[in-house]
Amino acid sequence: MKLGFIGCGVMANAMMGGIIKNGLLKPEEIWGADPFEGSRQKTKEQNGIHVTESNLEVIENCDVVFLTIKPQYYADAISSFRDHVREDQMFISIGAGRTLDYIAEQFENKPVKVVRVMPNTPAQVAEGMSAACPNQYVTEEETQTALTILRAFGKAELMPESLFDVVTGVSGSGPAYVCMFIEAMADAAVLGGMQRSQAYTFAEQTVLGTAKMLMETGLHPGVLKDMVSSPAGTTIAAVRKLEEEGLRRAVIEGVNACTEKSIQMQSAK
């Protein structure tokens, strides 16, 4: 399999790096196109792949092609190669808000295989969470190929396109909420006398370790919370205060606001 990228930005390079590091493909089996010489040079230095200015060169050499350009450039980019797409080629699109119907329109409604993906920024450290939805032309085997590629830089799950706005609310924008929580924890530690650098280390490792513990044990978050909460102890006092201050509701409303905004942005296009 030869893999291509139309666009060689930060996310594309992170994906390439994960794919190479996991041994899924060798650098010489990956192609990347970008109009900017600086981006091409950085990609070559970082991942050692074939780089070119020509989108068409990627299309001619690759079996699976990622669309990793900014959403506003989709129409121009696709128009540059749509007449040269092979029947067996598959495209993986990560453009925010670019639906399968929109992409089909750019391909002039030809039977092109497309998998729409919503990744998130932790993909840059091989800990991403991606939702994937194939169109009607993608076979089951091809879908599994797409998931295998996505899992080289994190986790990936199939998701109906109707839930992609919810995915945006939970995982797409989720890193921002987690950062706010870490920042608040660190601020509280500093208030208590801890040095700022240490405060961030303690908060970050606590979030990372807790998430890893939940994923590896399969415990429900509520069960782990109860395990830490001793009768009349410090943790339950904190839990009570957080509930009193509306932490749970604030998170739910924040995720819901993000989801609703994503829906509004879709309908405005």
UniProtKB/TrEMBL annotation:
| Residue ranges occupied by any Pyrroline-5-carboxylate reductase catalytic N-terminal domain in the UniProt entry | 2-97
UniProt catalytic activity: L-proline + NADP(+) = (S)-1-pyrroline-5-carboxylate + NADPH + 2 H(+); L-proline + NAD(+) = (S)-1-pyrroline-5-carboxylate + NADH + 2 H(+)
Q: Where in the cell is it found?
A: Cytoplasm
Which Pfam families does the entry link to?
F420_oxidored, P5CR_dimer
Top-rank taxon, per record: Bacteria
Query: Where, by residue number, does NADPH bind?
Result: 55
Ligand binding (NADP(+)): 6-11
GO biological process terms, semicolon-separated = L-proline biosynthetic process
Q: Name one GO molecular function term.
A: pyrroline-5-carboxylate reductase activity
What are the protein's UniProt keywords? Amino-acid biosynthesis, Cytoplasm, NADP, Oxidoreductase, Proline biosynthesis
User: Which pathway does this chain act in?
Assistant: Amino-acid biosynthesis; L-proline biosynthesis; L-proline from L-glutamate 5-semialdehyde: step 1/1
Domain (Pyrroline-5-carboxylate reductase dimerisation) spans 161-265
GO CC entries: cytoplasm
The EC number(s) attached to this protein equal 1.5.1.2
Which Gene3D superfamilies does the entry mention?
Answer: NAD(P)-binding Rossmann-like Domain (3.40.50.720), ProC C-terminal domain-like (1.10.3730.10)
Which family does the UniProt entry place this protein in? Belongs to the pyrroline-5-carboxylate reductase family.
Question: Which NCBIfam families does this one have?
Answer: proC
Question: What function does the entry list?
Answer: Catalyzes the reduction of 1-pyrroline-5-carboxylate (PCA) to L-proline.
Official protein name in the record = Pyrroline-5-carboxylate reductase
Organism of origin: Eubacterium pyruvativorans
Q: Where is the organism placed in the taxonomic lineage, from the top?
A: Bacteria, Bacillati, Bacillota, Clostridia, Eubacteriales
